[in-house]
Design brief:
- The structure is a homodimer.
- The first copy, chain A, contains 10 helices and no strands.
- The first copy, chain A, is an all-alpha fold.
- Chain A folds into 2 domains: 58 residues, Arc Repressor Mutant, subunit A, CATH 1.10.10; 143 residues, Orthogonal Bundle (Tetracycline Repressor, domain 2), CATH 1.10.357.
- The radius of gyration of chain A is 19 Å and the shape is globular.
- The N and C termini of chain A lie far apart (53 Å).
- The model of chain A has no long low-confidence stretch (mean pLDDT 89).
- At the A-B interface, helix 8 and helix 9 of A face helix 8 and helix 9 of B.
- Chains A, B: Keywords: DNA-binding, Transcription, Transcription regulation.
Chain lengths: 207, 207
């Protein structure tokens, strides 16, 4: 009896997660095809082959699914680096993840523009990035490569600084190379000396 | 003839500047007395004793005079530090100015809240702070205490990071001591090693 309830619940949860994934995939495709302007919830649900009302079980508003599309891309990117050999070294993981995420502004300006134009964009970026960023900084503190007294403040400053670099590139205020600077400066913020930080940022070039 | 034109122009410019200063002072008083909600342009012009229409020669909208009120306070604060003996040392100037500006969030939460709630708040903060921040970083680069390759990116990151600390304190996400961390981390970003940066941040405590 208990078993059956558990199985039922998990089946419902799995189905919910599948629907959510279908909606995000559909929105990603539609944004890639037509951009954000004119993206309609009915087009998303039609493409995902789910009922219109189902959308609002998963998302409060259109900006929330756009955040999910962006989060999917960023977390996927960060995850692929976390699973690479580079991630054994927290400093190299910070440098590689930072450069990969900032380079979106050069290599996938559509996605970067989605990110910086979201309502409460910084707060959403922080929500997406903070768990992984916090974990890698803590790992570096534990192994002694980072020197951070006040993690909440440093984390807040680091994420805000990286976000502003992405926005600066999207807006055309910052040019080529800002991703390298950003990676090196984030390592300085974590307590590395300038030369070592620059060395780590450059090592990611050949990854 | 030329002389008279020049004199006339400069008299008109002086009068304009005086009107602007009167409007900003009036708005500052009204905000201090009643807060931002319900601040009306007609109240500001009445208090400043100028014609209603004059306001719109100086400011496009109410948020623009609020920005001017905030800018006045921040630039005044930064200027008083620039004129102190501390400012001979660019590292001490960065530390002292950073702490003084971030401490507004603890000591004058009304002003800090005005700042973070402005429309395009980060962009406005950047516009206010960037000239002085850029000048002091350049001074430190020239004297060799700072090590910065890519000033536009570092400046963008520093200003965004400091702004987010102010917002974090206003929102209650960051606690006491965030101003010290912020000052030390900004010096790290400028290339100082962690111990020296922390030393400078703490030296400002007894200023």
């Amino acid at each position: 009896m208990v078993d059956r309830t558990v199985r039922k619940t998990s089946r419902a949860a799995r189905r919910q997660a599948q629907t959510r994934a279908d909606l995000i995939r559909a929105a990603t495709e539609l944004i890639a095809e037509r951009g954000l302007d004119g993206l309609r919830v009915s087009d998303i649900t039609e493409r995902a082959d789910v009922a219109f009302g189902t959308f609002y079980n998963q998302f409060k508003a259109k900006d929330d699914i756009v955040e999910a599309v962006v989060a999917d891309a960023l977390v996927g990117l960060a995850g692929s680096i976390e699973n690479s050999p580079a991630s054994d070294d927290p400093a190299l993981a910070v440098a590689a993840t930072t450069r990969a995420i900032v380079r979106i502004a050069y290599d996938d300006p559509t996605l970067a523009r989605l990110l910086v134009n979201l309502e409460h964009a910084e707060a959403r970026f922080e929500r997406i990035i903070r768990p992984q960023a916090g974990a890698v900084l803590e790992r570096g503190m534990a192994t002694g490569v980072f020197d951070i007294d006040d993690l909440p403040t440093v984390l807040t400053m680091s994420i805000a600084a990286a976000f502003e670099v992405i926005r600066g590139i999207v807006d055309g205020r910052l040019g080529e190379g800002a991703d390298l600077t950003c990676a090196a400066v984030l390592l300085r913020m974590a307590g590395m000396d300038a030369a070592t930080a620059a060395g780590y940022a450059h090592r990611t070039l050949n990854q």
